[in-house]
Amino acid sequence: MEIKDFIKARRKQLKMSLQTLGDAISYTPQAIARFENGKVKVDIRLIDDLIKALNVSLTTFLNGDIDNIVTYNEDKKFDEEKFLQTYKYYKEKCKISQSDLASKLNINKNRMSKIDRGISFPTIEEFKLLCEIFNISYETLYYGIIEEPYIESNNDGKQKNKSLNKINKVFLSLFIIFFILFGGSTVGLIISNINDTDKNLGSQA
């Protein structure tokens, strides 16, 4: 079932009016009607509010599975920055160019560029295609789940490792532990050798 049809079917299943659903997600009844008749594509940033209002899980909603409803139990929220980071990560991992991705999504390069820069966000239909292309789950992309340290190329061609600070902290902690365990005795040994040397020189004199 298409998203537009699912929204309408689930709304009626819950005996919600256009006004009630609109109030729940801060949209007008006219906007909800346009979503349901397919005149307006739903931006993925609206999914969180929709699945909560319709009391369905993210997967149920995106699959349009009206006959097998899994109710809303999400403990995560959509974050624009995390989504963009995750999108870039899997795009780089798949080694797919901007033009090739635009072609697969059936959108122009200008819109693809805006998505790449976080100026625009995919529609639900485009989002589902992205998950298929990247071969990842809806939850992975929507909630920004990256299992590996992410290295992102910036505009100057440099790379920044998102986990670098954590690594530095680990090394610093290890150094402090090493110093506490061995540093004191080492310093004491050096001072003792210096004192012995001074005594020997004193005896010779």
Number of alpha- plus pi-helical segments: 11
- Estimate the mean pLDDT confidence: 82
What percent of the residues sit in helical stretches (DSSP H or I)? Answer: 55-70%
Shape, please?
Answer: globular
| SSE-based structural type | mainly alpha
- Could you tell me the number of beta strands? 2
Order of helices and strands: HHHHHHHHHHEEH
Oligomer: single chain
Order of strands across the biggest sheet? Answer: 1-2
Biggest sheet descriptor: 2 strands, antiparallel
Q: Between the first and last Cα atoms, what is the distance in angstroms?
A: 100 Å
Radius of gyration: 29 Å
State which percent range the strand residues make up.
under 5%
Question: Which segments are poorly predicted (pLDDT under 50) over 5 or more consecutive residues?
Answer: 150-164
Task: Write up this protein.
- This protein has 205 residues and is mainly α.
- Helix content is 62%, strand content 3%.
- The protein has 11 helices and 2 strands; from the N terminus they run ααααααααααββα.
- It has helices at residues 3-13, 18-25, 29-36, 47-54, 58-63, 80-93, 98-105, 109-116, 124-134, 138-142, 164-204; strands spanning 151-153, 159-161.
- The protein has a two-stranded antiparallel ribbon with strand order 1-2.
- Helix 2 (18-25) crosses helix 3 (29-36) and helix 7 packs across helix 8.
- The longest helix is centred in the C-terminal third of the chain and has 41 residues, at 164-204.
- The chain is globular, with a radius of gyration of 29 Å.
- The protein starts with a helix and ends with a helix.
